[in-house]
Amino acid sequence: MSRREKAVQILQPGAPEVLQLVDIEVGEPGPGEIRIRHQACGLNYIDVYHRNGSYPLPLPARLGMEGAGVIEALGEGVTHLSVGDRAAYASQPPGAYCTARVMPARCVVRLPDTISFETGAAMMLKGLTAQYLLRRTLPQGGLQAGDFVLFHAAAGGVGLIACQWARALGLQLIATAGSDEKCALALASGASHAINYRREDFAARVREITGGKGVKVVYDSVGLDTFEGSLNSLAAFGLLVSFGNASGFAPPVQLGQLAAKGSLYVTRPTLFTHLATREATQAMADDLFSVVGSGQVKIHVEQRYALDQVVQAHRELEARTTIGSGVLLI
Ligand SMILES: NC(=O)c1ccc[n+]([C@@H]2O[C@H](COP(=O)([O-])OP(=O)(O)OC[C@H]3O[C@@H](n4cnc5c(N)ncnc54)[C@H](OP(=O)(O)O)[C@@H]3O)[C@@H](O)[C@H]2O)c1
What we know:
This protein has 330 residues and is α/β, with parallel strands linked by helices. It contains ten helices and 16 strands.
């Protein structure tokens, strides 16, 4: 039996106005799939790349990669979930901006009762990203309490989670952000220092803060605008983790530059490699649920929209006027 639901789709890439709310048919889950009825879905910067064509999708395309709701039906072979479970996910393929969907069960986990649907929808993609960055994407010898790291766009969705998680790990996280208000928020969330990178040369400030040494890791999701400064902020043998391109794609790396700047390392990870198996997804989610459950990490849901306000939600995300996480409430 199929039912009529609502979903956001694009017919071609472009500005926020290409997002349209349409009626869709949602059927029964096949083997390895579930049907979930959403209560909320998360807004992420990757949705902008999907919408504007930076990350091309086959068209027409549905958008959204994060959601929370109730499991309505199970396909054959799904044993880790039950009908009626509260659940949440960060997952390929896109399509979370909808009332209900059929999707692979592999990336869907049970949501602890203490975590609301809104928080669940706001934290899975961003929180699992902070998890793999701070816990699994490390320099030679790892990170120890007291070490300096630099985290760009630190007042954003991933950023505010990372500030708090870094504090819980004893790291000194130097935040960058695009306004003084955002810098203050990053500091209040656990950053040891904050730099307004629209006003200041962040690489020079990082040298000052670290007594000339530089940081062990730069977590850079801004891309084009920060790439060079990020390399210049690293200590010898430091690691540049380029994990996004909010300002445009980072330029190609000249390998010789890495030698000249101190035998540096560069990596370009994506969450979805880390979520390749159900076991890995569950282990990462358990780690995230534990820091959220203990109160070490609070999920800042600062923007809330109805599904039919998705165009406005994208405008605001791109205009850099948002802080923390945003959700579409179903
Ligand atoms: N590779 C992965 O696995 C992975 C997973 C999740 C997210 N990401 C990336 O992580 C980043 C953060 O994601 P998010 O969803 O939490 O978004 P977000 O940080 O809430 O929003 C993006 C932020 O980027 C900053 N920014 C700098 N230059 C910009 C520009 N020219 N245009 C727009 N924004 C600009 C803005 O903060 P300021 O005003 O403070 O500069 C903006 O608020 C994104 O780049 C995303 O693609 C990567």
